[in-house]
Amino acid sequence: MVIKGHLQLSLLQNSFGYSHCLQHSMQSITLHNHNIMSTPTISKEKPNKLVSRVLILGGTGRVGASTATALSHLCPGLQLKIGGRNRKQGTALVSSLGENSEFVELDIYNQRMLKEALEGVDVVVHAAGPFKVQDKCAVLKAAISSKTAYVDVCDNTDYALRAKGLHEKAIAAGIPAITTAGICPGVSNVMAAKLVDAARNRDGATPESLRFSYYVAGSGGVGPTMLLSCMYLLDEEAIAYDKGKEVKLKPYSGVLNIDFGEGIGKKDAYLLNLPEVRSAHQILKVPTVSARFGSDPFFWNWAMQASARFLPKEFLRDKNKVFKIVQSIDPLVRIVDEISGQSLSMRVDLNCTDGKKKVGLFTHKKLSVSAGYAAAAFVLAVLEGSTKPGVWFPEEPEGIAVDARKVLLERATQGTSNFVMQ
After folding, report:
1. 45-75 as b/e, with b when 16 or more CB fall inside 10 Å?
2. Which residue, of 107, 134, 228, 283, has the fewest CB within 10 Å?
3. What is the pLDDT of residue 304?
4. pLDDT by residue (tens digit) across 298-315?
5. Other CB atoms closer than 10 Å to residue 7's CB: what's the count?
6. DSSP helix/strand/coil, 8
7. Using CA of residue 108, residue 110, residue 116, residue 122, what is the dihedral sign?
8. How confident is the model over 9-43, as pLDDT tens digits?
9. What is the Cα–Cα distance from 326 to 255, expressed in whole angstroms?
10. Maximum Cα–Cα distance for the chain, whole Å?
11. Whole-angstrom Cα distance, residue 29 to residue 40?
12. Burial 156-169, CB ≥16 within 10 A → b, else e
């Protein structure tokens, strides 16, 4: 199988070993009553300079720009194409990235522009959200048509399932693709997969329940994108699984007080309909799965609860009206970010039938930065041949090979203040 562009996949596997991009070692990590303390240290070797080209769609947005910056740091030899509609921002980003980058002005809904941008590209990163409003997976279809490997940072269940529906076409084209390959979902899925694998294969235990919990201070530095994504989820029932049975619950209900460890502490988190619930249940074979999200300051959670309870579903389904609301409060969001910070914390709890428990925790002071390293880690895994042809979720071994998960997490956790898998 060949990734289109300058290098064959076999060449990438041989010339671009994991150690050439980033070695990330962790000093001692301890866990006391789920308060997690760690001190990461990072050492790098000089990376091989690849000729591979990566196109980042939504590259002038905060997540896309962060992905480009992370890729340029992890592997300076990559050729980066920044795709977006804002030429001024694109030009400024390219200037900061250096000579191995270029800006291409395009609209992802314009098939001609998209086709031209994909020419000569090895991997396309779709970071042009929100995905809730994208009905046809146009970028993935274009990637399959042009035989270009694909990674997206989708956080919407319906979009992810539509992407999965193109699985056979991706296989026929010989193209590897990973959907929901961001930070959460994405890195959180891989964390869950490692915990489940350790429980089953190392401890001989039977996983019983899996809980994803996320906390973001303010907007996490990604601006109105975070609020927009959450608002779009308020018209969807929160899907969870209880002993193998699918249950539908009210959005932003079922509050739990979650301990996110040192630096964050205990925060309230609420049920939302997130794609990792379904994929983890089906792929990891855990009978009980749920996902929750919470934010600071506290009135954001109150506002979300009130919106879920009192705003008509017809209003929440009107994407233009929701967008206008979010736009109108954008100045407030930016002020809140300055006060509350921009941190992200993820906690994955696995309980087994014998009473054994496993915990994964990830904390970073800036969501916008960690989201970029997360997406970059998936891109490099694809370039290194970790992904088979087809459309995969991050926890599927055909998406990220079992022996590649450790390296992916080492890259994705760069800059974390807390990271533990125990």
Report:
1. eebeebebbbbbbbbbbbbbbbbbbbbbbbb
2. 107
3. 87
4. 888 888 888 888 888 888
5. 18
6. coil
7. positive
8. 333 443 333 334 543 333 333 333 333 333 333 23
9. 24
10. 58
11. 9
12. bbebbebbbebeeb
Residue 206 is encoded by which pair of tokens? 């039977």
- Residue 54 sits at φ, ψ, to 5 deg, of -120, 125
Instruction: Compare 159 and 221 and report the one with higher pLDDT.
Output: 159
- Is 176 strand, coil or helix? strand
With contact defined as beta carbons under 8 Å apart, do 238 and 157 qualify?
Answer: no
Neighbouring CB atoms inside 10 A of 302's CB total: 10
Q: pLDDT per residue over 58-107, tens digit each? A: 999 999 999 999 999 999 999 999 999 889 999 999 999 989 999 999 99
Tokens at 330, concatenated: 């954008």
Burial of 24 from C-beta contacts in 10 A (0-12 / 13-18 / 19+): buried
How far is it, in rounded angstroms, from Cα 38 to Cα 420?
7
Q: Evaluate the omega torsion of the peptide bond into residue 130 and state whether it is cis, within 30 degrees of 0.
A: yes
**What is the pTM (predicted TM-score) of this model?**
0.88
The identity of residue 278, as a single letter, is R
168: tokens are: 């056979």
Tokens of 393: 């979720």
Q: How far apart are CA 240 and CA 274, in angstroms?
A: 9
- 384-394 burial: b if 16+ Cβ within 10 Å, else e: bbbbbbbbbbb
Calculate the CA dihedral of residues 238, 287, 216, 43 and round it to 10 degrees.
-150
* Structural tokens at position 405: 């998960």
Q: Provide the pLDDT for residue 301.
A: 86
Q: Give dist(CA 273, CA 63) in Å, integer.
A: 21
- Average pLDDT across the chain, whole number: 86
CB distance 230 to 293 below 8 Å:
yes
CA 245 to the chain's CA centroid: 26
Reported confidence tier of residue 129, pLDDT bands at 50, 70, 90: confident
What number is the average pLDDT over the span 146-167? Answer: 96
Q: What is the structure's pLDDT at 22?
A: 43
